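User: Modeling request: complex.
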Amino acid sequence: MAEQNAYQVADWNGQSGERWVANQARLDAMLAVFGQAAIEAAAPATGERVLDVGCGAGASSLALAARVGAAGQVLGVDISEPLIGRARALAPQDTAALFRVADAGSAELPEGAFDILFSRFGVMFFDDPTGAFAHMRRALQPGGRVAFVCWRGAAENDWVRLPMGAIKGIVPPTAPPDPEAPGPFSFGDRGRVARILTAAGFTDIAIAPFDASIPFGEGGTRDAAIDDAVEMAFEVGPLSRALADQPDDIRARASAAVRAAFAGRPGERSVMIDGAAWIVMARNPAS
Ligand SMILES: C[S@@+](CC[C@H](N)C(=O)[O-])C[C@H]1O[C@@H](n2cnc3c(N)ncnc32)[C@H](O)[C@@H]1O
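Assistant: Request completed. Predicted assembly structure:
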């Protein structure tokens, strides 16, 4: 049998991980409001222990650590060596957060050791999401809670909808991706998320939409902000993959079309786009 999550391990230790590190500051600016909403849903109290799944460069782990204080504990786990490296480099010395390179869906985790299972956009990449959540549930204490944020569908999210719409007719179409395949939108169907969590043994599942206008590009001027948005779309996400093997003339036409699409969005020194996510909460049954 193929190793679980092998593609994701390779990708997040290769191109996706390197690009995420290179764009970490602007991705953190874009994702902050979603992470904050998930932290409010998690409602971490002083002294609680939190497992941050797919912690990436650690912004959420550090915010959670500030909430649980010195008496608490946050363990950020991620399959990506470069991202955990960045998380450790950004962490202040006195943080209660620790970081570990591990596959959250299968790594040995201390049983019943956490009060909260948290994630900001880090749980949509498992080959076997039910198996992964069942595994992570065992690391939660009885009655422990889950709070994570994940994207709704690509069609509702401008960071994909705008650039991918702009290149239609420029780049030859490819087969639409399997909506349940591991990737940023695999939890877009709220019914599927509920089925995964139920099958993994969780109860009290609540899934609520969360919408936000977010800065996708920023700069000293409006033009610089639009350039920044185009650059980020070329670096991270489905557009970068769609253009990866395209010749320079196609990439140049795509760049102009994507620029025009972002230029239609509001913002003074930014490009403000609409983001659509689910805030998901659940509970490990009390034994
Ligand atoms: C979209 S990024 C989000 C990173 C971070 N939570 C943030 O909001 O900045 C998804 C993260 O999940 C991690 N990831 C994917 N599959 C994983 C797994 N099986 N175990 C742990 N981390 C995983 C990736 O390496 C990546 O850092």
